[in-house]
Design a protein that fits this description.
Blueprint: H1 2-5, E1 12-16, H2 22-31, E2 34-39, H3 42-53, H4 56-59, E3 62-66, E4 81-85, H5 94-103, E5 110-116, H6 124-142, H7 144-163, H8 166-175, E6 178-186, E7 191-198
Parallel strand pairs: 1-2, 1-4, 2-3, 4-5
Antiparallel strand pairs: 5-7, 6-7
């Protein structure tokens, strides 16, 4: 996903659902750009700040903001590029959220996302077994909280793709004003990167 952005060193990039700042840090390392990371979770942002404290060079190029993707606290066309990860499954209106994301990107800027996906063909049933049995079991080795997270993930992914098959998701990108939309399945189809250009 970071490679799909193709940011310039003078670009200002918005990383939505930044979490602990992994993507924000990778963007700076790869492009030398400036990044604003936004997340609705104060604990996640605290984790991101703790990681940045260990690397002042990265910290000076990354700003962290608490806020929601559905109502970004930024002006129109404020950013050169935008990234988001594991976001649309958690919002009430993915179409409206995509429009809001596109709103803050300059015409010609890239929008790129990373999300889980449903494998096709013979990989679907092993994936389903892993997400229904393997993930909860692995989580149980760590804590009850991780076990619950493991139980949640598979049904969450399947439910989202039941409501928004990939073809519909790509259509929503276009309807949001993001053109030249491309998708690339990864990890035997269990993950996907989607990217496009605002106003293209």
């Amino acid at each position: 996903m970071v490679a799909a952005v193709e940011a310039g060193s003078e670009d200002r990039v918005l990383d939505v659902a930044t979490g602990t700042g992994l993507v924000a840090r990778d963007l700076v390392r790869r492009y030398g750009c400036r990044v604003v990371g936004i997340d609705q979770s104060a604990p996640m942002l605290a984790g991101a700040r703790a990681k940045l404290a260990a690397d002042p060079r990265l910290a000076e190029r990354i700003e962290l903001v608490e806020g929601e993707a559905e109502s970004l606290p930024f002006g129109d066309a404020e950013f050169d590029q935008l990234t988001f990860t594991y976001l649309l499954r958690y919002v009430d209106d993915p179409a409206a959220t995509l429009r809001e994301l596109a709103r803050v990107v300059k015409p010609g800027g890239r929008v790129a996302c990373l999300e889980f996906c449903l494998p096709r063909g013979p990989w679907f049933w092993p994936w389903r077994l892993y997400t229904r049995v393997g993930l909860p079991a692995l989580g149980r080795l760590s804590s009850r909280q991780w076990c619950e997270a493991g139980r949640f993930l598979g049904p969450s992914i399947e439910g989202f793709y039941g409501r928004y098959p990939l073809e519909r998701q790509l259509q929503l990108w276009g309807e949001a004003g993001i053109g030249s939309v491309t998708s690339r399945r990864m990890s035997l189809g269990g993950g996907i990167v989607i990217w496009g250009t605002v106003g293209a």
